[in-house]
């Protein structure tokens, strides 16, 4: 009877057990996955809305695990952050994206800026600026073709973030504030931090048919333009969203309506097609 009770207990808790076990498994597997080349990058075009022309790209990480299959960055990036592995993983992303961008430039494709997502844990690591400089030097990519996307979580440590962002700016690297409008301190950040671009969060774009959302978007764009910032909208899935954004003076965007993230070969083909090379 005792054994039975224990089984019942386990059964009752199996949902939690599964979640915890999967998390532990992912923690262990991230370490190996870097060495075993299980990560790849895909690239989503950033486009000029009125022409659809590619003006840049965002690198996004993908993980195909031999047993677990596809694991979303939404699941494993927070785990990598928690256990500190985001630092080596982020360096791999940076290196791979810069190397790829340089390779495209060398074969005569248009000179574009590649955007890389950077977590607050990386930005606040004492060697971050050194690492970025080293990657640029080793890949031969000029700083002006690299953009770093950060989120408002950098506000956790505003003095330190300001120093790092100013150092990055002095090297010539661009910075963008991701998911703009989603959090609580968006306006405060604009006032405090040296950034070049804001990315309007997908939630506003999703809801743009709603007049209230449209006026929010309009206000966000006005503020950004008043601060002399560039504006790009993310998650554009429909033509009408793009139209409303343009009417409100947002000239650039990203989203499935233009292109899903593509692997390097597909992205290069699209770029060649557009630039007649
Ligand atoms: P994010 O930086 O906000 O990236 C945008 C996400 O929206 C990407 O999801 C992209 O594939 C997706 N997306 C783009 N256009 C559309 C659209 O029209 N509709 C919809 N429904 N989705 C769209 P993904 O690749 O799954 O990445 C999710 C998040 O994971 C990213 O959000 C970012 O926070 C994080 N992430 C991805 N790659 C990296 C990385 O290399 N480093 C770090 N630190 N974080 C990363
Ligand atoms: Ca991003
Ligand atoms: Ca985003
Ligand atoms: Ca995000």
Automatic annotation (TrEMBL):
Domain EAL residues, every copy: 23-275
Signal peptide: none
Alphabetized UniProt keyword annotations: Membrane, Transmembrane, Transmembrane helix
Name this polypeptide is given: EAL domain-containing protein
Organism per entry: Fredinandcohnia quinoae
Whole-protein residues included: 475 to 751 of 754
């Amino acid at each position: 009877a005792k054994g039975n009770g224990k089984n019942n207990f386990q059964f009752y808790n199996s949902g939690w057990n599964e979640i915890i076990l999967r998390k532990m498994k992912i923690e262990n597997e991230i370490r190996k996955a870097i060495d075993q080349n299980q990560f790849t990058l895909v690239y989503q075009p950033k486009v000029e809305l009125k022409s659809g022309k590619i003006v840049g790209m965002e690198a996004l990480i993908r993980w195909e695990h031999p047993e677990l299959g596809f694991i979303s960055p939404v699941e494993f990036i927070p785990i990598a952050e928690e256990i500190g592995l985001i630092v080596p993983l982020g360096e791999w992303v940076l290196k791979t994206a810069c190397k790829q961008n340089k390779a495209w430039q060398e074969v005569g494709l248009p000179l574009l800026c590649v955007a890389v997502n950077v977590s607050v844990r990386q930005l606040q690591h004492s060697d971050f600026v050194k690492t970025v400089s080293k990657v640029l030097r080793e890949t031969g990519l000029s700083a002006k073709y690299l953009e770093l996307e950060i989120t408002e979580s950098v506000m956790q440590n505003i003095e330190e973030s300001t120093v790092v962002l100013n150092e990055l700016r002095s090297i010539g690297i661009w910075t963008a504030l991701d998911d703009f409008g989603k959090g609580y301190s968006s306006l405060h950040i604009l006032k405090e931090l040296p950034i070049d671009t804001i990315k309007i969060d997908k939630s506003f774009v999703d809801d743009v048919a709603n007049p209230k959302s449209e006026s929010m978007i309009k206000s966000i764009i006005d503020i950004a333009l008043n601060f002399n910032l560039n504006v790009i909208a993310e998650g554009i899935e429909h033509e009408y969203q793009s139209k409303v954004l343009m009417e409100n003076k947002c000239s650039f965007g990203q989203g499935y309506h233009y292109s899903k993230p593509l692997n390097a070969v597909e992205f290069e083909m699209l770029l060649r097609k557009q630039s007649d090379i």
